[in-house]
Amino acid sequence: MPRKLSPEDQWWCIDEKTKKPLTFKGLKDICLDTTEICYIDAHNSKLYYMGYDIETLAAKSCFEETAFLLLYGRLPTAKELDAFKSRLKAERNIPDDLVELLRKLPDDVEPIEMLRTAVSYLGNLDPERSDLSREGIYSKAVRLMAKVPTIISYFYRIKNNLPIVKPNNELDHAANFLYMFHGKEAPKLWVESMDLSFILYAEHGMNASAFATVVVASTLSDYYSSIVGGIAAIRGVLHGYANVAAMMQFREIGSVDNVEKWFKENIESKRKRLIGFGHRVYRSYDPRARIFKRYAARFAEENEEIKRYYNIAIKLEDIALRSKLAEKGIYTNCDYWSCQVYRGMGFPVNYYTALFAMARIVGWTAHILEYTENNILIRPRLYYTGELDKEYIDIEKRSYREAEIKL
Ligand SMILES: CC(C)(COP(=O)(O)OP(=O)(O)OC[C@H]1O[C@@H](n2cnc3c(N)ncnc32)[C@H](O)[C@@H]1OP(=O)(O)O)[C@@H](O)C(=O)NCCC(=O)NCCS
Fold first, then answer.
1. 3-class SS at 385?
2. 201-224 pLDDT, tens per residue?
3. Which one of the listed residues 222, 279, 286, 367 is annotated catalytic?
4. Active-site residue flag, 131
5. If you placed Cys at 275, which of 49, 136, 235, 245 could pair as Cys (CB 3.0 to 4.6 Å)?
6. Which ligand 1 atom is at minimum distance from the Cα of 333?
7. Does 140 share its domain with 269?
8. Do residues 211 and 309 both lie within one domain?
9. Does the pLDDT at position 404 exceed 90?
10. Is the pLDDT score of 402 beyond 90?
11. Cβ neighbours of residue 363 under 8 Å, at least 6 residues apart?
């Protein structure tokens, strides 16, 4: 006879007081480890990288400096920053084999899915892929940070029958990416916004994609596999794909006049979730959203399309922040506004998640380095609720209703 387990059989998972299984679905509020990389002040709408307020970094830093800070733990000197920029520039080109692979990918593949394949392939081509030393990880991280903008730009230009534009080493990281993508030097506001988006998206604690990279790294797998894990996780709409979905949402609403009706029919009725709202950690306005909002306003001043989205977003936010969502601690997150900034810089909507991932390689690498410094294999358990010792019935004697499983 099949048998069920009693709570005592899985004593390690039973809460002594309630005698019920103690599980942590979604790992809500579980601290995996200690960290010095990032602090999210959930109630005061603050975010810190290595102790520096994100508002300060957004105002004073550049992407390369912030990346150096996250990877090496302190701000660089002027000489170090120059050397770091030079290393990035020297690694911008991508192998011809990879360009060929980009050509072969289906035209309708999502850029973030392309990136998952491309990073995996880049790992196959790297003779140092198995080197897990800290120096080895730093070199591969620099290589990847430098090459991913080239990969995204080349993919866009190949799929749109445009000539590939090689990296321009006169330009820094953000300006060069815009130059390769659009085929010409970008206006000042675009370069400033791209650099800002790199800074704001570079890191955000132990989110789903950072956790995925660290889970893979904890098995002592290679660096590229860990990053592929992160890209796979960021692709979901509850995480990185939200910046694409947020823009689709503004397009679906269409006009300011439709906002109230749309909110009632979709959000109040609970038919849909409001994309660009809510966060597992924040119980206040996402500080990155505040900064992106300022830049979205600047684009709205000079671009009619962004003005339309911006006005919809302002009205929708106003209604949402006066609704039950805010009572539950659900506020605007960064994707709500970053999608408008990305659109302002002329990027097609489906590229937004890849742009996010391009910046987040820095944070993923910082977490891989920090976690594996004192590595322990990540291997949680599950509380078993099924039966044991079931009788194995020979196939000809089984009498299940076959229609139950659709094949
Ligand atoms: C990000 C997100 C997954 C975090 O949520 P979470 O911590 O897992 O919280 P839950 O999904 O358990 O939601 C808790 C409650 O808030 C509600 N909620 C959370 N986010 C919501 C949203 N954006 N719109 C409507 N309701 C939302 C849930 O319906 C649930 O309500 P209930 O308790 O009445 O069932 C969630 O806020 C979300 O889906 N946001 C939209 C997608 C998005 O913008 N993602 C980018 C994040 S940076």
1. coil
2. 999 999 999 999 999 999 999 999
3. 279
4. no
5. 245
6. 48
7. no
8. no
9. no
10. no
11. 37, 38, 70, 202, 203, 204, 210
